[in-house]
Amino acid sequence: MTLFQASAGDADPQSRPLLLLGQLHHLHRVPWSHVRGKLQPRVTEELWQAALSTLNPNPTDSCPLYLNYATVAALPSRVSRHNSPSAAHFVTRLVRTCLPPGTHRCILMVCERSDAFASACALARAFPLFTHRSGASRRTEKKTVTVEFFLVGQDNGPVEVSTLQCLTNATEGVRLAARIVDTPCNEMNTDTFLEEIKKVGKDLGITPTIIRDEELKTRGFGGIYGVGKAAVHPPALAVLSHTPEGATQTIAWVGKGIVYDTGGLSIKGKTTMPGMKRDCGGAAAVLGAFRAAIKQGFKDNLHAVFCLAENSVGPNATRPDDIHLLYSGKTVEINNTDAEGRLVLADGVSYACKDLGADIILDIATLTGAQGIATGKYHAAVLTNSAEWEAACVKAGTRCGDLVHPLVYCPELHFSEFTSAVADMKNSVADRDNSPSSCAGLFIASHIGFDWPGVWVHLDIAAPVHAGERATGFGVALLLALFGRASEDPLLNLVSPLGCEADAPEADAERDSKRRRLV
């Protein structure tokens, strides 16, 4: 359990181990009077100052203050323009490696107010919820970590209760998403995922809309049904809808929820299939972000659309050469059953457009292995029909710690990769060396139309959804930051890049007047 408090209080580090964490020049600004009660009688002021003088971060550094009960750790002093000023990834790493062991522990996070949101989400990633280790089930006493922020720089007053509540809701969303992604499919099947959605809905007073199994086929959701029809647990489209009075626009977040991806009949190999429990990372991020966004007060219509299926093998499995009619009314010739995420998302974005009347549609998915090559392990890939929203996604990433980098958006050059002689399109590219991550996103966009006047954003989070063998909860912080201007919460307003003319790129002057922005 992680607790955010305005003041963690004083305690002997031998009874409550302590980690002090921040950039070195920020740590130097913490007065001894503020940390004395958390370090004495084990650490003196002279020892504290000596420890700070020995730190030489390259890119990070740490120094024990008292045995393994108290440690001070320094983040990188500078980061590049494609990184977050919060150095969020290093926050997570240092907490994992430097936080002293113990049942009740404390972290003093030293940062600027503008980095508090990213730092809190990074801290949350260091404390995953899911485990089936036998020792954990025998533990009777719950572990707690109390986090106190000490703000430096401009606007460095005390942390308000409302800010602490925002950080709590956001980090609970991050850990919820990570727990779902970490849970294997023998537990987190489509039935279980629907229960998670219902649980969040009950918490928010929202009853989900659920279309499932044969009803998907009857109503024309050929993408979701075709992918999931071979599994024991049937596929589903689920929607959580928040429709407040006074809303001025309608936003849809569409998440890919493939609870396990064998590849279908185009089956994956023994080295590439392990880890495919993570293929529901997009839907998990949508669920965690939706819960936090509504709890913090969301002023516009917001729909969370979950495209749930297990891409399994069986007598009813989709075959290569099969042709499916999707919800958009377009036909798709299947040439690769392992390109299934785009099929379920195509139905999801079509539903958001046709049935929900969305002005802004954002889909988020662990879509392509090529994303990790295109933008790397730490940066999600963004593909969008709006230059403004492309820039906003990158800026939101640096402000929240969920980093993003653009893909090439050029449908007139790339969409021909899906040409079919017998259907409107194939589901997989002809040339895998021709920007495959961009092409995969364009497949989804084609089902609402490249001339659709609204804003479409696609986020491919295949690589950053995990770090090693652990889920990161990636995407929750990004969605909250990107749409922060639609929130009633001041902290989410602060980290959002939209709604402020000063942040808009010069090219925005010629943007399509029908493409609306959050205000």
From TrEMBL:
The keyword Nucleus does not apply. It comes from the Eukaryota. Residues 336-343 form the Cytosol aminopeptidase domain. Keywords: Aminopeptidase, Hydrolase, Protease. Coiled coil: none annotated. InterPro entries: Leucine_aapep/pepB, NPEPL1_N, Peptidase_M17_C. Belongs to the peptidase M17 family. PANTHER family: AMINOPEPTIDASE NPEPL1-RELATED, LEUCINE AMINOPEPTIDASE-RELATED. This is Cytosol aminopeptidase domain-containing protein.
